[in-house]
């Protein structure tokens, strides 16, 4: 039987960075080999957080609420007590003028971005074809595969600041950020996956001013940011405006498998998200939201993020950076300033082989990483920097991370010595 896939389907069935990442994660789960998985986006299992989730689940089983939640469809906007809890938390703690009409739940951040990107870009009702503008790359690997056409995403090179011999930082080059009548939305992650970059308050406020002046939505991807899960090691304030769309998640609190994304936006956007949810999945899952509703109602989620989640990852990243300096000593490497998220971004300037080739060599030695070229969605120009970078996760066990970094160092030395 001959299969004739649609043009839209071709965006999803071909090789993509997202597919590579998830296939590698699946391989780890199914393999009996000792694999150092430094490639995936899974958060760590933090014992204190796991205990809280276990207690919440036991309570639901005991009082019968699990049966009620699992046996009926919820509304497409999400579990109503959770929507109210989220709105109340941000209204009372941060002064955001929102109600539960400003909040929706999706099947995870990836689902949120699929809805928002295709809601605001592409062929629009007024006949204009609009694009998504990323102020800079590298950016989240998942953005690149979500729009109907690759041309719907446009991005710019960053400005690179060399901080010292082995560290650097990306900054937005505002001279190349063109927001015009063909811009449907601007999107920035803070902190950024893959680099750990946190755009400064000044950079964020410049973006706010630019998008407000152009009357264009600004999507802020807050999967790792403040006030939760607060995996952020530099200063940064949560901000909201009527033209801002805030995207959050329960994944990095420790519930990635329950696929719970949170969108905070003006009611017209939330109504559209609600419609997408109804069509794509009938209703949002209530399990993740219901497990943490009481944490949001009490504000306890903020304390847990600040006192449990953030210190856990700060200790992990400090150790991972130290291992990089130990094992890569003598190599021409740089680490992007680790200001947040759960990854290190390594730049091997002048690397004689591509990051893809290095990925293949590492995989042969049972070390999984993600090669850098997948993290530049919308940057259609050639730039050798894209093939000189790797993303590694430090969320796994200390033994796994150290062993993986040691093997990366061996293969990098080999590449510089022999190509």
Characteristic key phrases:
41% helix, Aspartate Aminotransferase, domain 2, eight-stranded mixed beta sheet, six-stranded mixed beta sheet, 12 helices, alpha/beta, 419 residues, 2 domains, 16% strand, Aspartate Aminotransferase, domain 1
What secondary-structure arrangement, pairings included, does this model have?
Layout (H helix, E strand, L loop, with lengths): L6 H7 L3 H14 L5 E2 L9 H17 L1 H6 L9 H15 L8 E4 L2 H12 L1 E2 L5 E6 L18 E3 L3 E6 L2 E5 L11 E7 L11 H14 L3 E4 L22 E6 L11 E4 L2 H15 L5 H12 L1 H28 L5 E4 L6 E6 L6 H10 L2 E2 L1 E2 L17 E5 L4 H21 L1
Parallel strand pairs: 1-14, 4-5, 4-8, 7-12, 8-9, 9-10
Antiparallel strand pairs: 2-11, 3-4, 6-7, 10-11, 12-13, 13-16, 15-16
Helix pairs in contact: 5-9, 6-8, 10-12
Instruction: Give the SSE string.
Output: HHEHHHEHEEEEEEHEEEHHHEEHEEEH
Using the CA coordinates, give the radius of gyration.
Answer: 21 Å
User: Briefly, what CATH class of the largest domain?
Assistant: Alpha Beta
Indicate the overall shape. Answer: globular
CATH homolog superfamily of the largest domain: Type I PLP-dependent aspartate aminotransferase-like (Major domain)
Q: What share of the residues does DSSP label as strand, in percent?
A: 15-25%
Structural class: alpha/beta
């Amino acid at each position: 039987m001959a299969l004739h896939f649609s043009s839209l389907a071709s965006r999803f069935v071909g090789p993509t960075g997202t597919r590579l990442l998830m296939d590698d994660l699946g391989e780890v789960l199914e393999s009996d080999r000792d694999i150092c998985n430094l490639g995936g986006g899974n958060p760590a299992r933090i014992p204190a957080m796991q205990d809280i989730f276990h207690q919440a689940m036991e309570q639901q089983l005991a009082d019968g609420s699990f049966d009620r939640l699992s046996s009926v469809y919820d509304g497409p906007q999400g579990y109503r007590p959770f929507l109210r809890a989220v709105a109340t938390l941000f209204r009372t703690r941060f002064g955001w003028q929102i109600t539960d009409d400003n909040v929706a739940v999706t099947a995870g951040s990836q689902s949120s971005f699929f809805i928002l990107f295709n809601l605001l870009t592409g062929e629009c009702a007024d006949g204009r074809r609009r694009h998504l503008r990323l102020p800079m790359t590298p950016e989240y690997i998942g953005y690149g595969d979500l729009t109907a056409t690759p041309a719907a995403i446009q991005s710019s090179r960053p400005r690179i600041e060399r901080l010292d011999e082995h560290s650097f930082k990306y900054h937005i080059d505002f001279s190349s950020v063109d927001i015009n009548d063909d811009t449907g939305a601007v999107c920035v992650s803070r902190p950024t996956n893959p680099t750990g970059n946190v755009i400064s308050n000044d950079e964020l406020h410049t973006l706010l001013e630019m998008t407000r002046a152009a009357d264009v939505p600004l999507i802020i991807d807050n999967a790792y940011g403040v006030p939760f899960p607060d995996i952020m090691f530099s200063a940064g304030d949560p901000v909201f405006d009527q033209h801002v769309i805030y995207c959050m998640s329960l994944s990095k609190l420790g519930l990635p498998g329950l696929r719970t994304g949170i969108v905070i936006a003006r009611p017209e956007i939330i109504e559209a998200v609600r419609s997408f949810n109804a069509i794509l999945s009938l209703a949002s899952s209530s399990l993740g939201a219901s497990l943490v509703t009481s944490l949001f109602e009490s504000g306890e989620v903020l304390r847990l993020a600040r006192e449990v989640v953030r210190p856990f990852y700060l200790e992990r990243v400090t150790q991972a950076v130290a291992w990089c300096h130990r094992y890569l000593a003598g190599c021409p490497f740089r680490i992007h300033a680790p200001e947040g998220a759960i990854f290190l971004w390594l730049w091997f300037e002048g690397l004689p082989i591509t990051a893809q080739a290095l990925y293949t060599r590492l995989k042969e030695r049972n070390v999984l990483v993600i090669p850098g070229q997948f993290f530049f969605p919308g940057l259609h120009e050639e730039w050798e920097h894209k093939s000189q970078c790797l993303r590694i996760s430090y969320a796994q066990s200390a033994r796994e991370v150290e062993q993986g970094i040691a093997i990366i160092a061996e293969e990098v030395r080999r590449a510089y010595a022999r190509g």
